[in-house]
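[RESIDUES AND BACKBONE]
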Amino acid sequence: MGAHRRPRQRAAGGGSARTAATLALAGAATATGLDGTGHAEPDSTPEQVRARVDKLYQEAEIATEKYNGAKERADAAERRLEELRDEAARKQERLNAERRSLGSVAAAQYRSGGLDPALQLALSSDPDHYLDSAAFVERAGVRRSAAVGRVGRQLREIERLRAPPGSNSPR
């Protein structure tokens, strides 16, 4: 070191005193944080262990039975839901066929012009043929009316099938 510098003075107590104080405080904190000494559970007898294992097996068996019951109910509900979906699809297809049939009848009726039946009879070149045709048309009208009723019932049935369980759907 150069002659013109003074040697550095250390703080009172130095580094070793600080280290000792830190260790003492850490030891005190640790000792107060861990109250008492640890005690292990007393050893169980083989009979106690067997009884505990038997009880656990019994609890596991009860839980398994509950699970199996719930799974069976869920599977049955899933099968029923699939059956209802199939039924709804079949009824929807029948409804669509009825609608197509009624649509073609309505289109034919629209194309015929919709003249008054009395006027059609008066203008007809063969009144007997017209009356036979009118009787046929009357029977077709009755069938068409029945088909419209079936379509309405099918619509209600499809709505009932698609309604969530417990809802107050129209019947």
